[in-house]
Design goal:
Structural class: mainly beta
Number of domains: 2
Strand order of the largest sheet: 1-11-10-9-6-7
Number of strands: 17
Distance between the termini: 50 Å
Strand content: 35-45%
Helix content: 10-25%
Order of helices and strands: HHEEEEEEEEEEEHEEEEEE
Number of helices: 3
Length: 302
């Protein structure tokens, strides 16, 4: 009798499981292929030399001398199989960083000119200094009052063996006509980061849209021809990255219409590497909506 009940329970469970609706692609062939082509280019960009898959280090500098090389006695330790034991030093004085290279060590500026000593421009300055040694490439970054060395390995394993990013099925229901609510004057919004800082950014307004009769709004920042959105939703931490996703939204067209397309929602760099300094969604951009569109989580995240 118990055996019969167990079989019946298993049959009912199987039927219920098979009846669970699965997400399906929806949209015109042109629309679906367009989203897939966009995603393909997105993955190609991740693999480029300036993409996010080749980051192998982030080292915050202390005031004064910061010696670097592969020896563990250095302040900044480069990969042992990629760099000499003692390469030189980074000298941080107030907000100026100078690099000094030891004799017989080859470090190239823009992979061309040998460097012995020079002042470095950080990533928020025009003409950021890019330095190379073998497959290693690095530059100076500035976050708040902190300065750090961002290290890449152009021969990184993740670039060579990247499996791609799983996405929800393309669904044109997630391409939504919206309204742009302008802030006049612009509002200052607080954007937290994974390194514990708070960045204050100007927001020109909010994108306002409806789903199933409920209104939602997302504050944006200005990215030139488009708006930049950082958001979290009810899939965050489950199917998608727990710290939210990014989205670019084209500004209103000649007819004044604006569309927000969540099929193009994408993961921040911190999904792929612990050496990024990602912005996180401002608290007002945590919305109670399950957005089953765009990129899903990758690996374990960071």
């Amino acid at each position: 009798m118990k055996h019969d009940r167990l079989i019946l329970f298993l049959l009912i469970s199987l039927l219920l499981f098979n009846c669970t609706p699965k997400l399906q692609e929806k949209g015109s062939p042109n629309y679906i292929s367009g989203i897939k082509e966009w995603h393909k280019k997105r993955v190609e960009n991740l693999k480029k030399d300036n993409g996010w898959l080749n980051l192998v280090g982030l080292y915050w500098l202390n005031q004064g001398e910061n010696k670097f090389g592969s020896d563990k006695s250095n302040d900044v330790i480069f990969p042992a199989d990629k760099a000499p034991l003692f390469m030189g030093s980074f000298l941080l004085q107030d907000s100026i960083v100078t690099i000094k290279i030891n004799d017989s060590v080859e470090v190239l500026l823009e992979n061309c000119e040998q460097v012995t000593e020079m002042e470095l421009k950080h990533d928020q300055q025009k003409g950021t200094t890019i330095l190379d040694h073998g497959s290693l490439r690095w530059n100076l970054i500035k976050r708040g009052n902190r300065f750090g060395i961002r290290l890449r390995d152009l021969d990184a394993e993740l670039v060579k063996n990247f499996p791609g990013i799983e996405t929800f099925p393309v669904n044109d229901n997630w391409r939504i006509e919206a309204e742009f609510e302008e802030y006049n004057p612009q509002r200052e919004i607080e954007i937290p980061t994974v390194i514990g800082t708070i960045e204050k950014e100007k927001s020109p307004g909010a994108i306002v849209f409806e789903m199933e009769g409920i209104e939602y709004r997302l504050d944006v920042t200005d990215a030139g021809k488009s708006y930049f959105v950082i958001f979290a939703d009810l899939t965050s931490g489950i199917e998608t990255y727990g710290a939210g996703r990014f989205l670019s939204v084209d500004k209103a067209d000649s007819t004044g219409k604006i569309f927000i397309d969540f099929n193009k929602a994408y993961n921040p760099p911190c999904v792929f590497t612990k050496y990024a300094t990602c912005p996180l969604p401002p608290k007002q951009n945590h919305i109670k909506l399950e957005i089953t569109a765009g990129e899903m989580n990758f690996g374990e995240g960071h």
